[in-house]
Design a protein that fits this description.
The protein is an alpha/beta fold. The protein has two domains: 113 residues, Spore Coat Polysaccharide Biosynthesis Protein SpsA, Chain A; 194 residues, 3 Solenoid (UDP N-Acetylglucosamine Acyltransferase, domain 1). It has five helices and 36 strands. Strands 10, 11, 13, 14, 16, 17, 19, 20, 22, 23, 25, 27, 30 and 33 form a 14-stranded parallel β-sheet that branches. An eleven-stranded parallel β-sheet has the order 9-12-15-18-21-24-26-28-31-34-36, covered by helices on one side. It has a four-stranded parallel β-sheet with strand order 5-4-1-6.
């Protein structure tokens, strides 16, 4: 462990930033520069940081601290009063200008445009690192990977992919083209094609997309398919459940081997509160079904196409809730004649 305490001074210069924040709190590849620096220093064995900044930035500063480091955010007065005790005998090194780790060096910058130019260099470094560890990045120029992201070997990253936050991607996945993954855990063998996933867990061999949207707090079981134009939110899907296209499932607990037909929705919001839908294992949900929670569908039930489910469905039952069809002979011909139109 390096016997050094780094003191970082965050100075505000609203004339040189787009949002008025100190330069060290600007983002490079979706990650605050301060976090880049702290992680680089901790890799060298430095574990103690004192950040001097305005009190309004204290929470944001402490969110940048790596798990294996200790940090304090304080004002200039706090620094003068407390640094001796906090440093705990370590040698104090002061950093008074914005820096970003590029390779083995800390390069200084003074404006956001300068930071953007440095970002290109670190973007290339990150892609090169993942390529060395067994990840196939097809087009480095159109791929953006947050430095906090972990990718296992054998995974292929296709053009237009953006990986953000603390996402963890497993082995032998295919991510992209044109995919966004933010703060997700993605199991081995998954495919995310032209889709967006946020703050969720995908178990192994999940297929997502194209044009799917996995919103926060979802748990997608192994072997599931979340297909074209499907949106899920705050939902749990059991193993091998299929939502192939044009479906919305929100605030739901869904069992294994459930099949959702096209056009199915959970009507989870009544204008005041959210309600959960519970669906058991081996349920067949026909096309154009509306599930109006709170409602429970038992294991093995079958919901006929076009049904609006407003009451619980017992296991192995058939639920039908639609108006009986009536055909009126000759009606269309008479209507055309009324308006003087031919067939």
């Amino acid at each position: 462990m390096d016997r050094k305490c780094i003191v970082i001074f965050l100075t505000e210069d609203t004339a040189q930033t787009y949002n008025g924040k100190p330069l060290m709190l600007q983002e490079a590849l979706f990650c605050p520069v301060l976090n880049w620096c702290m992680r680089a220093w901790t890799k060298k064995g430095i574990r103690r940081f004192f950040v001097v900044c305005d009190e309004k930035y204290h929470k944001e500063v402490l969110a940048c601290v790596p798990p294996d480091a200790v940090a304090v955010a304080g004002t200039e007065d706090d620094y003068q009063r407390d640094i001796g005790e906090f440093a705990h005998g370590c040698w104090i090194e002061e950093v008074r200008e914005a820096v970003l780790p590029v390779g083995s060096m800390m390069l200084s910058f003074h404006t956001v445009p300068e930071l953007i130019r440095l970002q290109e260099a670190v973007r290339e470094d990150i892609v090169a690192y993942h390529q060395r560890t067994g990840v196939a990045v097809m087009d480095p120029h159109t791929t953006y990977i947050d430095p906090r992201v972990t990718i296992a070997q054998g995974t292929m990253i296709l053009p237009g992919t953006i990986l953000r936050g603390s996402s963890v991607i497993g082995e032998n996945c295919v991510i992209g083209p044109n995919a966004m993954v933010v703060d997700c855990t993605v199991g081995d063998g998954c495919e995310i094609n032209a889709s967006q996933c946020y703050d969720s867990v995908l178990e192994e061999n999940v297929h997502v997309g194209p044009y799917a949207h996995i919103r926060p707090h979802c748990q997608v079981g192994a072997g599931c398919k979340v297909g074209a134009y499907v949106e899920i939110k705050n939902a749990v899907l059991g193993r091998d459940t299929k939502l192939s296209h044009l479906t919305y499932v929100g605030d739901a607990d869904v069992g294994s081997r459930v099949n959702f037909g096209c056009g199915t929705i959970t009507s989870n919001y009544d204008g005041f509160r959210k309600h959960r839908t519970v669906i058991g294992d081996d349920v067949f949900v026909g096309c154009n079904t509306n599930l109006v929670p709170p409602v429970t569908v038992g294991d093995g039930a079958y919901i006929a196409a076009g049904t609006t489910v407003t009451r619980d469905v017992e296991p192995d039952a058939l639920a039908v809730g639609r108006v009986r069809q009536e055909n009126k002979g000759g009606w269309a011909k008479k209507r055309r004649e009324l308006f003087g139109k031919k067939k």
